[in-house]
Design goal:
With about 375 residues, the chain is an alpha/beta fold. The chain contains 14 helices and 17 strands. The strands form 5 sheets. A 7-stranded mixed β-sheet has the order 3-2-1-4-5-15-10, sandwiched between helices. Strands 6-7-8-9 form a 4-stranded antiparallel β-sheet. Its EC number is 2.1.1.56.
């Protein structure tokens, strides 16, 4: 994750191919998996669904909306690719892996999914997801668009999901795992199980997409801070592992994000992640940081940005130091002020933006997309991908 990237990537390739990476992991395969999974499940079960009004009052409302906009953009993109590959009126089957409270349900509705599987480790979150889904299809008109749906709680890092499907032979067109895969990198066994769950039911030519923290960016900031802990008013990362030579699996840190997250997580060494995907027949087609996605789609998807309120209007209509009763730190918007000075209409200038501290948090993340390769079998019945 620093100057030794090449040697670490070689170690990753050997570890994944040999399926014996214990020397690279700080924890034995699965030894502490159930314990950590219980911590993650307990954390997310305790987060209350406080409703839309409470979310609007959040200190990170624009950051949350921005991340949601990123998810919307990439889901729309890959939905379109899937529709191009399938005849009109064909089924569209999706696995929402680690679905949480159902934050992407509206996206699946807009994508006209015909079969949706929602699974999460947190039982309470899953129940809230199911309740939200049922409320979306309460009217008779909405019921006509209602997809087939399955909800079940499971630890995707330790359990095979397809055995829990109503039809274990079902083929999926899209698997989505948003802000969750990194929890599996506690050990090789857990990451391998999670990747198998993402890959094994995907139909050839279709996609596994997701978002997660960018380990390289995290390590870069740790080096710059010269400390085991760094962040700002809304997020903090504190390492609980050797930062000079973090292991491929089990590189643990605690991540705190305002009132939303306060939980142990693990770095994902992306070359290892990519090689693990190849082992299960997934070929990387796209890896992009959030700021790159914003750069490309902020123009074409400006209407969606505005609709989702993914950017804050600055200066606020109620004055530079106030936004809906909240005091604003002018230094957090110095970049907008500098941009305004370059505009001829500076006096009436307003722009959509994130505060510097929110942008610092948003730019921690990346998006990835894999495509399922063609599968054949050798004389021993083992899958061969091409």
């Amino acid at each position: 994750m620093s100057d030794s990237e090449d040697s670490r990537s070689s170690a990753a390739e050997k570890s994944v191919s040999d399926e014996n990476p214990s020397a690279q992991s700080s924890a034995a395969d699965g030894e502490h998996g159930e314990k950590h999974s219980a911590v993650v499940a307990s954390h997310y079960n305790k987060i209350e669904d406080r409703g839309l009004l409470a979310r609007k009052r959040s200190n990170i409302i624009f950051l949350r909306n921005f991340n949601n906009w990123i998810k919307s953009v990439v889901i729309v993109k890959y939905t379109a690719l899937i529709k191009e590959r399938t005849p009109l009126g064909s089924p569209f089957r999706v696995l929402d892996l680690c679905c949480g409270k159902g934050g992407d349900l509206c996206k699946w509705l807009n994508a006209n999914v015909t079969h949706l599987i929602c699974t999460d480790i947190a039982q309470v979150s899953l129940e809230q997801c199911e309740s939200r889904f049922n409320s979306m299809y309460s009217s008779e008109r909405d019921a006509q668009r209602r997809p087939k749906v399955e909800f079940f709680a499971a630890d995707a890092t330790l359990q095979q999901l397809r055995t829990k499907y109503r039809d274990p032979s079902m083929k999926l067109h899209l698997v989505s795992c948003q802000f969750a895969f990194h929890y599996s990198f506690e050990s090789f066994k857990q990451a391998d199980c999670m990747m198998k769950n993402a890959a094994e039911c995907l139909e050839e030519g279709f996609y596994f997409i997701g978002t997660m923290p960018d380990a390289y960016e995290i390590m870069k900031r740790q080096r710059m801070a010269m400390s085991e802990s760094f962040g700002n008013d809304i997020y903090n990362i504190k390492f609980i592992c050797d930062t000079d030579n973090p292991p491929l699996f089990g590189a643990k840190y605690n991540f705190q994000l305002d009132e939303v997250v306060d939980c142990p997580e693990f770095l994902v060494h992306f070359p290892t992640f990519e090689k693990l995907a190849l082992k299960h027949g997934l070929r990387l087609v796209e890896k992009r940081r959030f700021e790159d996605i914003f750069q490309e789609f902020s123009g074409p998807k400006q209407g969606l940005l505005e609709k989702m309120q993914a950017l804050e209007t600055y200066p606020p209509y109620h004055g530079r130091n106030n936004f809906e009763g909240q005091r604003k730190d002018p230094e957090q918007y110095a970049h907008v002020e500098d941009f305004a000075k370059k505009m001829s209409s500076e006096q009436n200038f307003r722009a959509g933006t994130l505060s510097l501290k929110e942008w610092e948090a948003a730019s921690l993340y990346l998006f990835f997309a894999f495509q399922k390769m063609k599968t054949s079998y050798d004389a021993q019945g083992r899958p061969v991908y091409s």
